[in-house]
Amino acid sequence: MTETPASLTPTQLRAYFAFTEVSSLLKHAVEKQLRDAGGLSYVQFELLARLGDAPGARARMTDLADGVVYSRSGLTYQAQLLEQRGLVTRTPSPDDERSTVLTLTDAGRSVLADVFPGHIEALHQLLFATLSADDVDDLARILGQAADHLRASPPRSAAPRRRKAS
Amino acid sequence: MTETPASLTPTQLRAYFAFTEVSSLLKHAVEKQLRDAGGLSYVQFELLARLGDAPGARARMTDLADGVVYSRSGLTYQAQLLEQRGLVTRTPSPDDERSTVLTLTDAGRSVLADVFPGHIEALHQLLFATLSADDVDDLARILGQAADHLRASPPRSAAPRRRKAS
DNA sequence: TATTGTTATACTCTATAACTATA
DNA sequence: TATAGTTATAGAGTATAACAATA
Q: Rounded distance, CA A166 to CA B19, Å?
């Protein structure tokens, strides 16, 4: 067991407050851009972007749910919305009939293409414009480390699925 | 006008992805802790914490709304919830009868006290445990800079209040 | 019996617009 | 006329639990 201090240092507090503030302001700005440019919520964009990166532009619901921090029913809900808009298709997996495979359609890829440039521009102007290359290096290294730690951390908010205590 | 590159560097991408991942995982974990320890949402915690820091443990609705990124009606909603639980009081301001002043009650301060230790512990274990003192310094500096920039940026999602175009 | 995904449902949160009251 | 805040309302999103189908 590692002992936990009862308080944070002033610098830790500053880092935390700055982090939450950047997180909040950046998320709002990005969500607005995604909504204006493609009518997408952040989650929907993330799902489409993951599909766009996936081999064959397809992925199983469960694999998507593990990446995004969502309940399965929430993912079903979002997948329905995307399917209704024709941005993805849902088909049963040939390998395992229980699984549903989401596939990005041409229309989905087109919406992604509509949205990407503005997304990148927003990130550049809001986040990266004021940071030096060294700052970005540091940020990537430090936050990458933190992300690794958090990902491995037990208190996952979206636990894979509860296991019986027996 | 500053020219905007059409894409991000690989390091910028890594920094961005790490940032969003940390943001998402940390927020979920912190929200769970606040809910379990004090039945508070993150917004409610933030409001109570701001009142706790404010002189006289009191603040006007508008001043709170400017800090938190919320619509006025959303703030009214949250203030009602907090008042119903007896954690704050709402009284008209003596200076300006249009204003409402929120004041933290003893019960509110008590809930804050219940919640703080676990909040700090969560931050320490999830975020700071793996970071060196230098890393925290860098993080505070870099994100502080980004926060300053974002705060000053025109596309505020919660604009103070729309002004007539005339 | 465990796993994948869907459905039904209820709840929280947020924003817009209309409204009241005060400056 | 402008500002502070509330109310009414409607919509998006999320999670839990029960369920059906497959492994």
A: 38
